[in-house]
Each structure stands twice: as C-alpha cells, then as structure tokens.
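Reviewers asked in the last cycle whether our approach scales beyond single polypeptides. To address this, we selected a multi-component target totalling 276 residues and predicted its structure end to end. The input consisted of the following lines:
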Amino acid sequence: MESKDLRNAGLKVTLPRVKILEILETSKARHFSAEDVYKLLLESGEEIGLATVYRVLTQFEAAGLVTRHHFDTGHSVFEMNLGNHHDHIVCVKCGRVDEFFDETIEKLQHDISEKAGYKMTDHCLYIYGVCEECQKLE
Amino acid sequence: MESKDLRNAGLKVTLPRVKILEILETSKARHFSAEDVYKLLLESGEEIGLATVYRVLTQFEAAGLVTRHHFDTGHSVFEMNLGNHHDHIVCVKCGRVDEFFDETIEKLQHDISEKAGYKMTDHCLYIYGVCEECQKLE
DNA sequence: ACTTAAATGAAAAAGCTTCTCATTCTTATT
DNA sequence: AATAAGAATGAGAAGCTTTTTCATTTAAGT
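The resulting structure, written as structure tokens, was:
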C-alpha cells in the first residue's frame, strides 16, 4: 500500500514515486545512493530520470519517509525510516555500510548528557574504518 | 614553529603550507572550508591557488594535522587537531556546543569495529539535546 | 651554486546534485 | 468519461565542490 504512504505525505501518486518507494522497501540493501536507486530502477525496467530520483528522495526526506545520511564518502546516502534505532559503521574505501546497536553506548550517552546538564533528544554515531574485503586488497 | 610540524609530517617547508598552517592556528574560528582558508589567504595578501589549498589540506589530513568533517553543508570542513580527542554534545535550541570524552565508549567502538570485521580509522559522535539554560526557558 | 625531485598555479575535468523548461501526467471537477 | 489546472517528469544544462593535468617554479641535499 505504497500509495497510502504517498498520499499521507501529501505527494501525488505517480509512477516514479511508487517505483522508488518499492525499491527502497523491497531491496535487500538498506542504504542507497541516488545512483543506486537509479540503477535499480533501470534493472527493473523503469526509465526514470536521475533528476527525478534526486527530487523524489528529497521529497521523501522532507516527508519523513527516509533519512539522508552524510557519510564521509562524498555523496548522500538514503535509508528508509523503519523506526528501529541503530548506528552505522562505514567503510572509508568502498562506502559499504553496516549497522550496529550497542546498549551500553546508548546508556552512556544518556549519562553523559545528564552530567552535562542536557536533556538528550537525539544522537548520531558513525564509526569509520576499512571493511574486511578492502583490507584484503591492501 | 610551524616548519617543525611540516618536517615531522614529511612535507617540504613551502610558503603555501606554512601560510595555511598559520591560518589554521591563528584564526579565531575552529572550522574551515577550503574556500574559507583560500579567502583568508587572500585577505592576508597571499596569492595561493585554490587547488593548492585543497592539496595542502588533504596532505595535512593524511599527516594527522587536521581532521576533515563531512557536515550536511555539501562541502568538507577542516579542523586543526589539537591532540585531545573529544566528542560533541550540541544544544538543538541555542547551538551551544560542549565537549566530552568517554573512555568506555571509545573502547566499545573498537570492539564493535572488530566484531564487524572493520579496521577502525575514525569515528564521529554527536549527542543532540537541550542544554540547561534552554530547559529553563521552556 | 647545481641538480633532482617535489610543489605550485591555472585551467580543465570530474563527480554529485540541482535547475530549467517543454511535455506529460494526476487529480478534482464537469 | 471528458476536461481543465496545476503539479510532476525527463533530458540536458548548469552549479558547486574537489581533483587532475601539465608546464613552470621551488626546496633541499650535494
């Protein structure tokens, strides 16, 4: 029922938007560059322009459907909002992204906030490194 | 004694590198885009090409003299490394920034990287919240 | 000073992303 | 269903930041 999501977001139900939402929801990957989405669309037989992909992803971000990440890879990466919090570990060589969740770190952040007099609302943690594959290539 | 720093980094002591290091060390600001550095150089009467600024900043990063941040502004921001690693806690109301360092979080990040097969090179942690002052105003 | 390898500047090129504008499509209304 | 009005799209141009190229200049050791 993607069209519902689109309507709720105040967006007209157009083929590009439906298809892009479909890609984001059904692909195994979780993180997509605009280029990734564009290529997946081509693979599935949809001739949707790259400019439209950028436009739609930006609209989805504004509508809260996706989150845009600024990893150290030089380009934006988009991720569907599924509600389950997690942090990211990013390969600085190939751009691969893995997710992790650490209870202790989460708790420590609250402790730190409290000690600093802050009421914590959010956080953002990226670990950067070289992934297994890229280490082999060195 | 900037020339010492450059030599230690394995870099020839050239006028552009000395001047750029000077800018980074003596300006009040803490974060600089390449363009910022370029303009400050012009203001101080140095005609140094933008390409050189980029090259030098990249070399400084490789040498560990500066850190490159990727904010959501669309361009890189550079910051002098003052040796003391710390993370940031940012007030979402007034923009106040405090620094903190937590040994346990640092260690956990290494553990997580290892478990994920990554060789960790860096990390980036921001906590967002409402600071003491701003809580009073609510 | 001299030599050699490295650094620089200017301009071109390279990525990623946004903008322009003519055409097409969605949606609300007959 | 047909229509009208406005929004969305596609293709290419343009915009920005950053990197590369290459001829020229400069630093550092002999």
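Chain B has six helices and six strands. We regard this as preliminary and will revisit it once experimental data from Aim 1 are available.
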